[in-house]
Amino acid sequence: MTASARWWPVALSHELGKQPLACQLHDLPLVLFRAEDGTPAALPDRCPHRFAPLSAGKVRDGQIECPYHGWRFAADGRCTRVPGTELERCDKPLLDSLPSCEAHGLVWVSPAGDRPAILPVAPAEQRQALDTFWITDEVECSLLEAAENFLDGFHTHFVHAGWIRHDRQRQAISARVRPLADGVEALYSEEGTQSGLISRLFEGERGISMGRFRLPGLAEIEYRDRKGGLNLLVSAWLVPVGNGRLRLFARIATARGWLPAALKRLVLRRLFGVILRQDRQILEQVSANQRRFEHLPVKPLDGRQDLLGPSIRLLIEGGEALDFEERRVEIRL
Ligand code: FES
Ligand SMILES: [Fe+2]
């Protein structure tokens, strides 16, 4: 995958304050800090002197100070102070800084040397005023496994039985699957009222819902009412951090209404906490099971109801847009 040419989120904007923040992207441990003008900076989290983690240091005047002997580094990786000696003029960076930026409530880093030409992938735009909050987590699974799990309706009757759907209360619906410029989308129409608890609490009649995946790792679910108004938008940025682990930054958005945002957040956070735990459990079982069968690798078997999984696999493996005719599938969800 051409992961190197893209922006990946590594932290929530509000998490990065006055102190350095450790994070990891594609097996590379990083330290994030804010330069004097407030813009985020990203350096490898290893002091070149004796390899102390810079994330355990302090930010001084917009530069990172190593906790061991106090060497200081600017956002571009140049060393600006070696306590105890006159610093020799040092124009060459001692650390390779990574391109970084801030957008959509997240701090982004590109593992490539140059700034990517493509902007950070944004959540679906909404016309209404929104109440939003974030949930973050880490799961032991791959990007593909997490994206497919998040966008697949057919596991919800079993993994989230009663919370999202019931196996005994399925309804016939039509789904359209179409390619996007940087991903793939499924539109589900005429879903009516859902059987699960979450829908009963937060939705009236559902008109249309969408599940979409966009490169390099945004999975979104959008529920709309019959008039096209937003009920719920969950945008989950999925980031492979390394060692088979995936970091999730999920932004939960609801249309601003009469219910106070803090109350919605309280209830939704609880509910999503349960759902996430259920998904994490099955995803980690899948990962562990794949390791048991490492010596007998096989390709996953797709069924007709796997609306997005095969496309997500192609997108992640190929790193570029897919070209296929929109197709319609009748399913019982
Ligand atoms: S290890 Fe960082 S200053 Fe010595
Ligand atoms: Fe799930």
Describe the structure.
- The chain is α+β, with helices and mostly antiparallel strands and 333 residues long.
- The chain folds into two domains: 3-109, Rieske [2Fe-2S] iron-sulphur domain (Rieske Iron-sulfur Protein), CATH 2.102.10.10; 130-332, Naphthalene 1,2-dioxygenase Alpha Subunit, Chain A, domain 1, CATH 3.90.380.10.
- The chain has five helices and 18 strands.
- The strands form four sheets. An eight-stranded antiparallel β-sheet has the order 11-17-16-15-14-13-12-18, with helices on one face.
- The longest helix is centred in the last third of the chain and has 32 residues, at 261-292.
- The mean pLDDT is 92.
- It binds FE2/S2 (inorganic) cluster and fe (ii) ion (FE2).
Strand and helix map with partners:
Elements: E1 8-12, E2 21-25, E3 28-34, E4 40-44, E5 58-60, E6 63-65, E7 72-73, E8 79-81, E9 100-103, E10 106-109, E11 130-139, H1 143-151, H2 156-159, E12 172-180, E13 183-192, H3 197-202, E14 206-214, E15 218-225, E16 230-242, E17 245-255, H4 261-292, H5 309-318, E18 327-332
Antiparallel strand pairs: 1-10, 2-3, 3-4, 5-6, 6-7, 7-8, 9-10, 11-17, 12-13, 12-18, 13-14, 14-15, 15-16, 16-17
The structure holds FE2/S2 (inorganic) cluster (FES) and fe (ii) ion (FE2).
FE2/S2 (inorganic) cluster (FES) binds next to loops.
- Report the portion of residues in β strands: 35-45%
Major sheet strand order: 11-17-16-15-14-13-12-18
Helix-strand string:
EEEEEEEEEEEHHEEHEEEEHHE
Global outline? elongated
Number of strands: 18
Domain Rieske: 7-109
Keywords: 2Fe-2S, Iron, Iron-sulfur, Metal-binding, Oxidoreductase
InterPro entries: Cholesterol_7-desaturase, Rieske_2Fe-2S, Rieske_2Fe-2S_sf, VanA_C_cat
Protein name: (Fe-S)-binding protein
